[in-house]
Amino acid sequence: MERGGRESGSADFATLLEKAVGHRRGLLHEAGASDACRVFSGAADGVDGVFIDRYGAGATLIVYEGRAPQWFDAQEIGPVVLGVLKAWGVQGVYHKPFARDRSKMGGELPPVVTDPRPLCGEGVEEALAIREHDYRLEVRLYDGLSTGIFLDQRENRKWVQEGVKARVQRGAAPKVLNTFAYTCAFSVAAARAGALTTSVDVSARYLEWGKRNFALNGIHAEGVAHRFARMDTFEFLEYAARKGLRYDLVILDPPSFSAGSKKKGIRPWSSVSDYPDLIRAARKVLEPKGSVFASTNTTELCRPGRLQQLVVKALGNEPRWLTLPDAPVDFSRDRDRFAAVGFTV
Ligand SMILES: C[S@@+](CC[C@H](N)C(=O)[O-])C[C@H]1O[C@@H](n2cnc3c(N)ncnc32)[C@H](O)[C@@H]1O
Q1: CATH number at residue 98
Q2: Which of 6, 10, 41, 157 is least surrounded, with the fewest CB atoms within 10 Å of its CB?
Q3: Which of 65, 59, 68 has the alpha carbon at shortest distance from 120?
């Protein structure tokens, strides 16, 4: 975004943002719509390295250092974002600067990402409950760089719900295993539709957050219907296979990389090299005719057809593919950054 060599600024950004919001207007008016979505998506909406997400009364302005253009000044753009998103009920905008090389930050976060005071506008509650489909989820806009939900999976969570509902109507509550569960959004979606769930993550903090998400929806999370395992996913899958635990749906949505920790029994993980093993390990815990949902945002695996090829190679045969929903409208312009497949073995 540059005009005749002159640096662009807030007025031009306002125009781009209005356009991006217009493209997503349906989300605001849809019956029972979610009140959390992406409203500006980097290069796809005209400015590389800049992303804006709306979470009910709050919004985050995510700026990737080195990718965002030189003219982009968060202090100047914050009020522009607030001005445009006021019509969507946004009252405060929080700044999330992402360093070019986070590994050099030594685990230190920029103070602004834990500051309850927004970049502009009024502050929002520490724990905000947003609405998605027929459930609510807790998000935190000043608890670090992440907020507690991956918005791009919204329609996939609905797909999980619909699959569960169909099974429940046929008379059985399906068992859903959600690995790399984070704050258990997929589990909550499944549980709301009547599934029995198991959520696995190495982070106790995220699983506690997951339990709060269950509570937010009036689902009792301490009983036998919904289990939480603080464990390495591979370790859990091996344990489940040994114990004869079987699932109707296994959800695989791992990060691209994870350093692991010998001390905590967490294996290092790389999607490019380890995904085939994960698929094979998941297959061992499926009920007959059980399904797998496998997702990634690792660049190498997002090339068209690449994730399917990987699955076929891992299984040694072609599974029965399931039709997944298209990317939600707020991510439709950058669908090449995500890949997901569903299959029955
Ligand atoms: C990309 S997020 C997963 C997003 C989640 N599926 C969702 O839809 O909200 C990555 C999660 O994987 C967890 N994680 C990383 N390595 C893990 C491992 N080896 N086993 C289990 N969980 C792991 C992290 O703690 C984090 O919560």
Answers
A1: 3.30.750.80
A2: 6
A3: 59
Segments of 164-301 assigned E as strands? 175-178, 196-201, 226-230, 247-252, 257-258, 269-270, 286-296
Can you tell me the distance from the alpha carbon of 330 to that of 173, in angstroms, rounded to the nearest whole number?
32
- Mean pLDDT, range 8-33, rounded to an integer: 84
Same domain as 327, residue 245? yes
pLDDT digits (tens, 9 = 90+) for 234-249: 999 999 999 999 999 9
User: Which residues contact ligand 1 via a Cβ below 6 A?
Assistant: 150, 153, 180, 182, 185-186, 200-203, 206, 232-233, 253, 255, 258, 266-267, 269
Residues of the domain holding 240? 151-344
Is residue 7 scored above 60 in pLDDT?
no
120 shares its domain with 191: no
Please list the residues that pair with 197 across neighbouring strands: 176, 226
Q: Can you read off the two tokens belonging to residue 158?
A: 């609905």
Give the tens place of pLDDT for each residue, 299-321: 999 999 999 999 999 999 999 99
Contacting residues for 101 by C-beta, under 8 A, at least 6 apart: none
Last residue of a domain, one of 110, 139, 168: 139
198 phi and psi, to 5 degrees? Answer: -130, 125
Nearest residue (CA) to ligand 1, atom 12: 180
37 CA distance to ligand 1 centroid (A)?
A: 21
Please count the CA atoms within 13 angstroms of the CA of 174 that sit on its side-chain side.
Answer: 30
Q: Is residue 144 in a domain?
A: no
CA–CA separation, 54 and 17 (whole Å): 13
Which of 105, 139, 173 delimits the end of a domain? 139
